[in-house]
Amino acid sequence: MSRAEHIGQQAAEWLIAQEDGLLSPAEQARFDAWFAASEGNKAAYWRLEAAWREADRIRALGPRVPMLDGNRWQAWRRRAWRPLAVAASIALVAGLWAAAPQLADYVPAFIEDEPAPQQAFATSLGMKKQIGLQDGSRIQLNTLSVVRTQIGAKRREVWLDKGEAFFEVSHRQGRPFIVHAGDRQITVLGTKFSVRRDGEKVIVSVLEGRVRVDELKDSRLLRSSVIVGGNIAMAQGAATLVTVRSEEKVQDTLSWRTGMLTFDQTPLPAIAAEFNRYNARKIVIDGESLENVRISGTFPSGQPDAFARLLRNAYGFSLDETADEIRVSE
Questions:
Q1: How much is the pTM?
Q2: How far apart are CA 321 and CA 290, in angstroms?
Q3: Rounded mean pLDDT, 77-83
Q4: CATH 3.55.50.30 placement within the chain
Q5: Numbered ranges of CATH 2.60.120.1440 in the chain
Q6: What is the pLDDT of residue 222?
Q7: Per-residue pLDDT, 297
Q8: φ, ψ for residue 297 (rounded to 5)?
Q9: 3-class SS at 322?
Q10: Domain boundaries 259-329, CATH class
Q11: DSSP tag of 24
Q12: What's domain 119-250's architecture?
């Protein structure tokens, strides 16, 4: 088997594996490494991905061959494409091999920028969800969150309608990744970041790389801020405040991904509000004097009762517990 044939075979296998279902984290890492290894790999994959979409478009618009629907069509397409995909890749890989240095900016011209279908994902109280996107990017949803995704040939967009999400964006030259959160639009210039939306308040925490936060009004750009790794931007109304922190502080804000909540001299009411995002049994802070209490530490997000007992043992606060709430008072 020639080198071109080998690359075509690999591209076909990866595309079919992605169609069969979400890749595991280890598989996704292997795909990302393979995709980034050479421009020939990228060209072969893009060619097959475009042809794969075209097969679905033709089936939707014209006569069906074979006359199959639903899962039977998907199964037939995978079987038929396994041998055809390799042949479709060989000419492209072999013909463009010498031009590999120029392929870094390659986006197939034959790919039509047709609107991609939207997909919606949501989590309930206390739930988290991992989402693998077809471009290799990943989203982790926090509790009570709703996102819509639209991953197209030339543009990748996500709408955070509610809650919080952590993004690991796979780089695709010429295919921007944009997150919409209220009147803020976040354009990815790097890889790993989170967006939290509480009504009109939007918080962007960048773990690695850079993102650009745009304030829009009636689709018009008003102002922009570039946020780099280790920084957090808080936007509301016409104001965007960028706080320069360390990567460790950003990691603390993302501890929810492992089921923990991390606080650094945080007022007790704000801590109660965070626990209440994850639990049906609510913590209620009763008393003005308790509002000035500040606490540091890391606690399991799903154990409000354990946290309340720590308050009683450490500060001598009283607890009044019912099935629905834990009331903390002096």
A1: 0.63
A2: 17
A3: 49
A4: 259-329
A5: 119-250
A6: 85
A7: 94
A8: 150, 175
A9: coil
A10: alpha beta
A11: P
A12: Sandwich (2.60)
